[in-house]
C-alpha cells in the first residue's frame, strides 16, 4: 500500500486541523445501476458507520428507476439508506442516440441537485455513460471527485468513458497494481491514487459459507445441484451492436445444445439491449424448461449463485472480476472485457463467431474448480478507502500534478490459442553442451538443438541467441506458440532479475551476467532464469513424481550434486538465492576436498567428478580393471568405469560406490530432519546406482518419524530442459507474477 506507507500520523493530524476538527466530510454517492451499487454499497455502509467523520447523501439515477430493469432502487431502500434524490435520466430507445440523450438529460438535472447538496466530495464508480454525466457535472461545479475502479482496461466504449472520468476525477481508488500503473501513465498524481482493491470483494470473500441451497432452488428450481447449472449474463457492445446481437444468439443456441439448467439475466440498458431481449423471446428462453430468465437478482443472492455454478458465460465484468474470488469457471465472450486482468478461471472466446466454438468452450470449462483468485481484492478495501477519505485536505488546490511512468502489458488466455500448442523455449547451459528445445505444455520435447558450450561470455551469448532465433522460427512450422524463454544454468542465480550471480567452475566467464535483458530484447519474449537444480525440482513438480506433492526434495546426481526444494507447492530460493545447495552438505569433517574449497561435502564423495577421481587412483595403481573389462590406451578414465568394475566384482570399486552412497544417504537424512519432505526424488545419471544405498542409510540413521519418506528415481529423461520450460509454462498460464 504505497499511499499509506507515505502517509504519516502527523500528516493526518494536520489535515484534521486544516479542515476543522468539527467539520464532517460531506460525501455524495451517486449510483446508476445494479452493477455499480454492488461496488458502492460496501463504501456506503462504511461511511454510514462513522457519523462522527462523514455525512452521506445518496443520489439515485439511471436504470435503477426503470421497471424493465427491476426497479433496483428498492434494494438501496432495503439496505436502509435514505435516498436524497431520485433523478429519472434514461431516455428510452436503447440505441446510440438514446444513450447520448440520457447523458444530456442527466447534465440538465444534476446541477440543481449538487447546488442543494453542496458535497465536499462525490464518489463516482466505473465506466457507464451515467457516471460520465456525474463526473462532468461535479468537475464543472468544482466538486472533488473520487473515482472508483479507474485505470482498468476493457474492449469497448467503456474504456473511453472510464479514462475520461479519470481525467475529470481528483482522487482515484483502483483495484489492481496494473490499474495503478495505468493511472500513473495517464499523468495522475501518485499521491492521489489509492490501491485498495475492489470494495465488492469485502463482501464476496466472506459470503461463500452462507446457506446457498435455498437461493439456488429459488432461482433455478428444486432439482438443481451445485456445480450443475450455468449463469449467463451478456450485454450489448455499443461499438458493434449488430455483431454482439449475433453473438448473443449463438450463445443461446450453444446453451440450448449444452442442455444444462441456466439462469439468464437480462442485459443492461445500453444501446442494443432491446434487440437482445427480442432474441431471447424469439428463441422462447423465458418459457424453455432449462432456462430461467430474470431482470435482476439481489447482489447477496447473486454471489451465492455464481459461487456454486458449474460455469458463468457472457461478457459482464463480473465474470472476469468478482467470480474469480470463488474459482468458478468463466467463459468471456467477445471483446467487451479485452484487456482486463483475469484469473486462470477465465477462458476468452474473443471471436465467438460460431456456435461450435462456444459449445467447445462450455465443454472445456463446465464443472471445473479453479483456485480462488484475489487479483481484484483481499477483502479490506473499505477500511483503506475510509482512511483515504479522512486524509483529504479540503484546503489543498484541486490542480493535478503529472508524471509519465512505463506500463507493462498483461498476458491472457484465448480460445484460438488453445488450438495451437502452447510451448516454451527451454535453454540448458551445461558444463559441456548448450541445448535449446521447444517444449510443449504437456512436457513433450518437440524439437531439440545441441551445440558445444563456448568458453567465452560473448561467444556463449551469441550462440544462445542464434539457437533461440532458429528454434522460434521452427516453432511456427510445427504450430507451436512460444510463450517465453526459460533458462537453466549452473551456479547461483537471482531469478527475480534474471542474473547469474556466481557460476560453477565448470562454466567459465559466467558470473554477474544479466541473461534476461539481452535475450528478451532480441526475441521480444519474457525470459526466466534459474539454477539447474531448482529447474529439476520444477520439472518434477509439473511433469514428474512431484506433481501434486506439497513438500518434496529433488537431488541431482551427475557431474556435481545439486537439487531443489519444493515447500507448500512453491520453490524455495532463500534470502540470497543459495537455498538447496544440497551437494555442499557436509557429512564428514575430515573427508576429501570439494571443489567449493570445503571438506567432506556430499559432492566430494558422490558426484561424477568424485567417482572419476577415485577411479583414476585405482587405475594408476592398476587396481581398476577386472576380467571382462578393457580400455583403449587413449581412453579417459571415468565414473562409468568404476561402476562397471564394481558390477564385475571389483571389491575396491564396490567399496568406493558404497561409501559414496552412504555419504549421499547421510545428506538425505540431514534434509529429512531439516525440511521433513514427504518425497525425495533422485535424478541424474547416478540416481539408480544410489537409491538402495540411500534407503538403507535412512532406515539406519533417520528418526522414526521420517523413515516413511518415499525415495524414488526420477522418470524424466531431460529434467533440466523440462524445468526451464516449466519456468515459462507455469508463470505465463497462471498469469500471476
From TrEMBL:
Pfam family name, one: Epimerase_2
Catalytic residue list: 532
Chief place where the protein resides: cytoplasm
EC number: 2.7.1.60, 3.2.1.183
Superkingdom, natural source: Eukaryota
Cited Gene3D superfamilies: 3.30.420.40, Glycogen Phosphorylase B
Binding site for Zn(2+): 584, 594, 596, 601
Keyword Cytoplasm carried by entry: yes
Residue intervals of the UDP-N-acetylglucosamine 2-epimerase domain: 53-390
This protein's GO CC annotations: cytosol
Keyword terms: Allosteric enzyme, ATP-binding, Cytoplasm, Hydrolase, Kinase, Metal-binding, Multifunctional enzyme, Nucleotide-binding, Phosphoprotein, Transferase, Zinc
Family affiliation: In the C-terminal section; belongs to the ROK (NagC/XylR) family. In the N-terminal section; belongs to the UDP-N-acetylglucosamine 2-epimerase family.
Listed name of the protein: Bifunctional UDP-N-acetylglucosamine 2-epimerase/N-acetylmannosamine kinase
Amino acid at each position: 500500500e504505497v499511499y499509506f506507507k507515505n502517509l504519516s500520523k502527523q500528516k493526518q493530524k494536520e489535515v484534521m486541523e486544516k479542515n476543522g476538527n468539527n467539520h464532517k466530510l460531506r460525501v455524495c454517492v451517486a449510483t446508476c445501476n445494479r452493477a455499480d451499487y454492488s461496488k458502492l454499497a460496501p463504501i456506503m455502509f462504511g461511511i454510514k458507520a462513522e457519523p462522527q467523520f462523514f455525512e452521506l447523501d445518496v443520489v439515485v439515477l439511471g436504470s435503477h428507476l426503470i421497471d424493465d430493469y427491476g426497479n433496483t432502487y428498492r434494494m438501496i431502500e432495503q439496505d436502509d439508506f435514505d435516498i436524497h434524490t431520485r433523478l429519472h435520466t434514461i431516455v428510452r430507445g436503447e440505441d446510440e442516440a438514446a444513450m447520448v440523450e440520457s447523458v444530456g438529460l442527466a447534465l440538465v438535472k444534476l446541477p440543481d441537485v449538487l447546488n442543494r447538496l453542496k458535497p465536499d466530495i462525490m464518489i463516482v464508480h466505473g465506466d457507464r455513460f451515467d457516471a460520465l454525466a456525474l463526473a462532468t457535472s461535479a468537475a464543472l461545479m468544482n466538486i472533488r471527485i473520487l473515482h472508483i475502479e479507474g485505470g482498468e482496461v476493457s474492449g469497448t466504449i467503456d474504456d473511453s468513458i472510464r479514462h475520461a472520468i479519470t481525467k475529470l476525477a481528483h482522487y482515484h481508488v483502483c483495484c489492481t497494481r496494473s490499474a495503478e500503473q495505468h493511472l500513473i501513465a495517464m499523468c495522475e498524481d501518485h499521491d492521489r491514487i489509492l490501491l485498495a482493491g475492489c470494495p465488492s470483494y469485502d463482501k464476496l470473500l466472506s459470503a461463500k459459507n452462507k446457506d446457498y441451497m435455498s437461493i439456488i432452488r429459488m432461482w433455478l428450481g428444486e432439482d438443481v445441484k451445485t456445480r450443475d447449472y450455468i449463469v449467463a449474463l451478456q450485454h450489448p457492445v455499443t461499438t458493434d451492436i449488430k455483431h454482439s446481437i449475433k453473438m448473443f444468439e449463438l450463445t443461446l443456441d450453444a446453451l440450448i445444445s449444452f442442455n444444462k439448467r441456466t439462469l439468464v439475466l437480462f442485459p443492461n440498458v445500453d444501446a442494443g439491449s432491446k434487440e437482445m431481449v427480442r432474441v431471447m423471446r424469439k428463441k422462447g428462453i423465458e418459457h424453455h424448461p432449462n432456462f430461467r430468465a430474470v431482470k435482476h437478482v439481489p447482489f447477496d443472492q447473486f454471489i451465492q449463485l455464481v459461487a456454486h455454478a458449474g460455469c458463468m458465460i457472457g461478457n459482464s465484468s463480473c465474470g472476469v472480476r468478482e467470480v474469480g474470488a470463488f474459482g468458478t469457471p468463466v467463459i468471456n465472450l467477445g471483446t467487451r472485457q479485452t484487456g482486463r486482468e483475469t484469473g486462470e478461471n477465465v477462458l476468452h472466446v474473443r471471436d465467438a463467431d460460431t456456435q461450435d466454438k462456444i459449445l467447445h468452450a462450455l465443454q472445456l470449462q463446465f464443472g471445473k474448480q479453479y483456485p480462488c483468485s484475489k487479483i481484484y481484492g483481499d477483502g479490506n478495501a473499505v477500511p483503506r478507502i475510509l482512511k483515504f477519505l479522512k486524509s483529504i485536505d479540503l484546503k489543498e488546490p484541486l490542480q493535478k500534478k503529472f508524471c509519465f511512468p512505463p506500463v507493462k502489458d498483461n498476458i491472457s488466455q484465448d480460445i484460438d490459442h488453445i488450438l495451437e500448442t502452447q510451448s516454451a523455449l527451454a535453454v540448458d547451459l551445461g558444463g559441456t553442451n548448450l541445448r535449446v528445445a521447444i517444449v510443449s505444455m504437456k512436457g513433450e520435447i518437440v524439437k531439440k538443438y545441441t551445440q558445444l558450450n563456448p568458453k567465452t561470455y560473448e561467444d556463449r551469448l551469441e550462440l544462445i541467441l542464434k539457437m533461440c532465433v532458429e528454434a522460434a522460427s521452427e516453432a511456427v512450422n510445427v504450430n507451436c506458440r512460444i510463450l517465453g524463454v526459460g533458462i537453466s544454468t549452473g551456479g547461483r542465480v537471482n531469478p527475480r532479475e534474471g542474473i547469474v550471480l556466481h557460476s560453477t567452475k565448470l562454466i567459465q566467464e559466467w558470473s554477474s551476467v544479466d541473461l534476461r535483458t539481452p535475450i528478451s530484447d532480441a526475441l521480444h519474449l519474457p525470459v526466466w532464469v534459474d539454477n539447474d537444480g531448482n529447474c529439476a525440482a520444477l520439472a518434477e513438480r509439473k511433469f514428474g513424481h512431484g506433481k501434486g506433492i506439497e513438500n518434496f526434495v529433488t537431488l541431482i546426481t551427475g557431474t556435481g550434486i545439486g537439487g531443489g526444494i519444493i515447500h507448500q507447492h512453491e520453490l524455495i530460493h532463500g534470502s540470497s538465492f543459495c537455498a538447496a545447495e544440497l551437494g555442499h552438505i557436509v557429512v564428514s569433517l575430515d573427508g576429501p576436498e570439494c571443489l567449493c574449497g570445503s571438506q567432506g561435502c556430499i559432492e566430494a564423495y558422490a558426484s561424477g567428478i568424485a567417482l572419476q577421481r577415485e577411479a583414476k587412483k585405482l587405475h594408476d595403481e592398476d587396481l581398476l580393471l577386472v576380467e571382462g573389462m578393457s580400455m583403449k590406451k587413449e581412453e579417459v578414465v571415468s565414473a562409468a568405469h568404476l561402476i562397471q568394475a564394481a558390477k564385475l566384482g571389483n571389491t575396491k570399486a564396490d567399496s568406493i560406490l558404497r561409501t559414496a552412497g552412504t555419504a549421499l544417504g547421510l545428506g538425505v537424512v540431514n534434509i529429512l530432519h531439516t525440511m521433513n519432505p514427504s518425497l525425495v526424488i533422485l535424478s541424474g545419471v547416478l540416481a539408480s546406482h544410489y537409491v538402495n544405498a540411500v534407503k538403507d542409510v535412512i532406515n539406519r540413521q533417520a528418526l522414526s518419524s521420517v523413515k516413511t519418506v518415499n525415495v524414488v528415481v526420477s522418470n524424466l529423461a531431460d529434467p533440466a530442459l523440462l524445468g526451464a520450460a516449466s519456468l515459462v509454462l507455469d508463470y505465463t498460464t497462471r498469469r500471476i507474477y
